[in-house]
Every structure is written in C-alpha cells, then in structure tokens.
Amino acid sequence: MVKVGGYILGEFGNLIAGDQRSSPLVQFQLLHSKYPLCAVSTRSLLLSTYVKFINLFPEIRTIIQDVLMLDSNLRSSDAEVQQRAVEYLQMSKVATPDVLATVLEEMPPFPERESSILAILKKKKPSAFKNESDEKKEGKMTNGENNAAAMPTASPPTTLTSSAFTDAITSGGGGAGGISDLLGLEAPASSSAPAAAVPASNVLLDIFGAGEASATEPSDMSFKPEAQENFTGSDTNIKKFVCKNNGIIFENDIIQIGVKAEFAKNMGRVALYYGNKTQASLSDVSTALDTSNAELLNELNIQTAPVGTLLAAGAQVQQLVKVECVQDFTDIPALIVSFTYAGVPQRIRLVLPITINKFQTVAEMTQQDFFARWKALSQPTQEAQQIFKAQYPMDSEQVKTKLIGFGIGVMGGIDPNPDNFVCGGIVHTRTQQIGILVRLEPNKAAEVRYQHTSVTGSN
Questions:
Q1: Distance of CA 92 to CAs 35, 53, 57, 245, 423, Å?
Q2: Which of 174, 199, 245, 398 is the one with CA 20 to 30 A from 149?
C-alpha cells in the first residue's frame, strides 16, 4: 500500500495539495515516516516520488534534498537506492525548472493489452467469440437507435477505459462520481448563465473568503447563445486556480477540460486537455480567444495552438496556449470553445487561469529595507487597504500557505507584531518590474477580521 500511495502522490499529489490536511509537507512526511521500514523496491519508488515532489512543490525542495543526502541513501548497500539518491540529488541541483518539469512529467497512459489466454481461446473456438461480438454489435445498434430517437438530449457519459482522462495531468473523473469529486475539485452544480468578465483586482482577498458571492460573479463558465440544451456539470470558480495551476477547469455531461500551467517571470504556458465523455464524436471543434475586452488584448500577448476539428468518442486532445504579460492587468482572459454535438452547436466561455499573480516572483529584504521602501511608496494611488471578515478560522500556517501560493514571499522578523504577515513580490512585465509590499494584519478581537494593506510601484 505504501508503494501504491507513493506512486499516486508522486503523479497526482498536486491535485490535493490545496487542502491543509494534505499539504505538500504533510504528504512528504506521511510517506517518509514509512520509508525506514519499507523493502528496497519500495524505498526506490519513494525516492522517485520525492524527486517528483521537488518538481511539483518547490517549497519543500531543501527538505527532500536533505533526505537524499543522508548516508543511508548515498552510501546504501543497495545499488539501486544509492544510484537513485545520487542522480536525483544532482538533478534537483543542476537542472532548471523547465528541464525538471520535462523529465518528471506524468507517466503516459498504459496501452490496452489483450489477455494471452483470451487470444488462445479465440483461436481454438472463434465461433463462441464471434457470437458474443455479434450480440455486442446488436446491442450497440439498439442503443444507437434509442439515442437517435431521443436527440438532441445528450447521451449519458461513458466510463472510459485506459483513456487519457485517467492518466492525464488533471486526473479527472468521468462524471459526478469521478476522481475530481473525491479530490474536491468540483463545486455543486448551478444553473448556466452568461459569463461576465472576471475582475482580478481583489483576488488576494477572495482566496481568504472575503465577501459573499455576488450576482455579477459567473456561476458557470459556459454561455450558449446558439445552443439548445443546458450545460450541467461542475461549477468551477476561477478563484480556485489563483493559488494552483493544475486541475479540472470545466466539466459537463459532454466534455471535460483540464488544465496544467507553468509560468516564469513574464512568460507562461497553459496546456488545455479536452476530453470527449460521450459515445459520439464531437465535430466542428474550434477555439478562439475572447476579443470582447480590447484593453486586455493589449495587456497580454496570447497565442493559441490549433486544435483538430474532430474529437472522437472517448478521446482527448491537448492545446497549448502561450501567454506574455506585456503590462499589468486586472481582467482575466477567456477562450471560446465551440463544437457540435448531436447536431446541436455548443459554446463554452472558458475563463483561463491567468491572473496577475502568476507573473509574480518572491522578493526578500531586511526589516530596514522593507520599511524604507514602504515609506517611499507614499502616493495615494500606490496604496490600497481593505478590512474584511475572515470566513475560516485564523490558522497562521494555512494563511501562510495561501500567501506563498499566491506568489509572494512571507518574510519573518519584519513586523513588530509577530501575528502580522509581511510579504513582498515582484510582478514581471515585458517593459518593467513592479514591486509589491503587503501587510496582512489579523485582528482576532474584532470579530475575527483581517486588515489587508498593499503598496506597489505602479499606479
């Protein structure tokens, strides 16, 4: 069971890392507590899991490197353990993040293999298997006739065997009872409504649960000016992707869309995975950037790779989206995904997980430098402050994890009040770098409230 757990967490542990009960450090500590008692083969696999953690969770890199440097690993009597420890340690020190991500990508889907026993039986008694195949074909024809009579109602999703859904980076399920539900990636379904532009200005406050959901916020990422049937499925809030880059971004009875993104300074790359959940092909598949916000098109340079016009039943295709931050922005870009299912045009407005904090890197400084820079940014347009009520218990470690996930560095020993969080970051654009300083002050006595103050070098 340790070996199975190690393999699954190494491949898909990032999908549950947002929960404090399964944070990156908790996952690592849980696995490593079993390490000394495991067999050699299990220890070898766990070392592979550890190096995958370095790629998925850079914040625990040093902790894992310390484990790899232990004499029990580097000088192990077992050649396999020793070789993995040495190679993984060097890889984590020498390889760049891009190279590391390429080398340690998820395992590809395993090909389906026919049982050797069934192959022998088919040769000896082909008539028996022929009859069985004929019955299956008849059943499919009957189902097809029933489905055709019921159109344009969508056919129920099928369970996909050895499909890319299971082994894709998002590891999403094929329906309401899928893996994505178990991991908490989906929210309760809601009625479909036209999606408005999603502002990103208060996104840091939103991840702490500030404010109630308003009627102007999109309850569903789909709109259907030409479609004749409602979209049902997961109601994915774009706020979930503020502090993470992987997951299921949209799903209904017809299609599942997963995302995996990576960013470096002012450049980013987003991989979208389109999976057909039905028994019929999706035709006229196309994607186009939402051009309704002209200002956003000048602030971001987005290039989308072409995608095939036909998506076969149970198949999955990938589309790469390259993005460059030209200047600071507040709105969030969207992609219009169009296809035809059962003769009915469908359209989805897919909000992309591209927010300003994705182009942000950590800034570290001394107490003297922090307050000197804070005082220098004294213009009214350079400072923003908001007081809001906490929606969850004030757990310092959980708040710190969210701030780090937001892309800003949490600096200790800066503020005289140890309960306050002092943070710094740098937003990278094509033409300039914008410094950001943040103070988050919990006030447990005043009805569990936060005071958030930030200053920036940009207006």
A1: 20, 11, 12, 21, 27
A2: 174
Q: Do the beta carbons of residue 387 and residue 449 sit within 8 Å?
A: yes
C-alpha dihedral over 74, 75, 80, 86, to 10 degrees? 20
294-308 as b/e, with b when 16 or more CB fall inside 10 Å? Answer: eebeebbebebeebe
Closest among 13, 38, 35, 39 to 26, alpha carbons compared: 13
Q: Which tokens go with 93?
A: 């020190």
Tokens matching residue 222:
């789909």
The strand ranges marked E within 129-213 are none
∠ at Cα 13 (12, 17), nearest 5°?
135
Block residue for tokens 């939103």: 206
Neighbours of 418 (CB within 10 A): 8
Q: Which two tokens stand for residue 345?
A: 């045009």
Sign of the torsion angle spanned by Cα atoms 99, 104, 109, 111: positive
DSSP 258-322: EEEEEEETTEEEEEEEEEE-SSS-BEEEEEEE--S-HHHHHHEEEEE----S-B-TT-EEEEEEE
| Contact in structure between 342 and 255 (CB atoms under 8 Å) | no
Phi, psi of 105 (to 5 degrees): -65, 160
Q: Which of 129, 168, 147 is nearest to 249 (CA)?
A: 168
Give backbone dihedrals phi and psi of 277, rounded to 5 degrees, phi first: -95, 0
